[in-house]
Amino acid sequence: MTKKFNNRSWAEPYKMKMVELLKMTTKNQRLKALKEAGFNTFLLKSEDVYIDLLTDSGTNSMSDRQWSAFMTGDEAYAGSKSYYNMEKAIQTFYGYKYVIPTHQGRGAENILSQILIKKGDIVPGNMYFTTTRLHQELAGGKFEDIIIDEAHDAKSEFPFKGNVDLNKLDYLVKKHGASKISYVSIATNVNMAGGQPISMANLKALREYTKTHGIRIIHDMTRVAENAYFIQQREEGYANKKIKEIVFEICSLTDGATMSAKKDALVNIGGFLATNEWDVFEEARNLVVVYEGLHTYGGLAGRDMEAIAVGIKESLDDHHQRARVGQVEYLGKKMEEFGIPIVKPIGGHGIFVDAKAFLPHLTQDQFPAQTLAAEIYLDSGVRTMERGIVSAGRKANGENYYPDLELVRFTIPRRVYTQAHMDVIAESTAMVYDRRKKIKGLTMIYEPKYLRFFQARFDKL
Q1: 315, 344, 373 — which closes off a domain?
Q2: Is the N or C terminus of the chain more exposed, i.e. has fewer CB atoms within 10 Å?
């Protein structure tokens, strides 16, 4: 008798040629490491980490094709052929006309902010990101959140929580005038909301609105391929379209972009600024020489640019994205089986655990997400990161931001871990969940001036 399988298992579209051996630690060793790191997972030494979910930025595994391209890098100071190969890939797959390489995404954010933002300007966006907002503020602008309300609700199942609320944008335009809006900052697969996508319909409506008012859309395209996957899976009219077609359409609705190639493009370092405007490109080409390097290498080695060119193409493969997001979904479903409160729907690049719901007895000033990240490392050596009050930082007047979402991010690097690793992660989190009522919070004992989540130190209350 033949069995019918409605939901057949899938496997990764690659096989392993090399492995990195990991150090196994005891709980006492982890406690010592945690205290030395001031209960900040960013300050842990990587050799003391078993499964590293701190970030998916630059932590991906490159393919044999990328390594092959790596060896062909042209390390010429000026006019490197590797730059032109990367430029061609960006123009072909993303459609932007002009390309400035940078050492990573924040290099592009810095240059773009200096060009487009004037003191007193408003920069609306679909939820802040840490480095993006800081560069906007340092350039004299003020970020305003125009994401839909559902994005701030961890329990909401709305499929496109990265969408812009056009009424919020219209309010800002009427209040300040279109001339005071530097640009609308649009992230695809919104990180701080839990890896949540923006829909094509919403982006089209935004494009129509901004055209009417003469406002640019600048695209933070770090995870654009993952966003395209969700459009393919969830949005009417896109089920039969390829990821690469959807990505190209997304980019066509924007005027320029910044990208950290360390995410979707599957490399360990690199980024770029892309634009369709010659004047912006010309100014960026001048500034990149000041901050990064010549306009044909921008702080990157030729081999890095070659790897980016190949990685862009690989990131747009439908089988790759199905396996990449599928692994995240697998972990999310395991978490749900254990009753662990997570952001819903499951996002593209990681699982975001709701620390407020996990540790309801801790106030936000006791840093529940920072506390939970430390406790998970202590249990199993799994390193995660805080995305809550610590990451949100302080306002210009010195007061803390108090974000609605207080999250611990379990970020899955691409092509690195197996499903067995996902099982270990979920089981460790469940063990901490079982003893959650006994967990005490933290107090901050050192705070740096900028982006405090990277270097702040804490102690147990």
Answers
A1: 315
A2: N
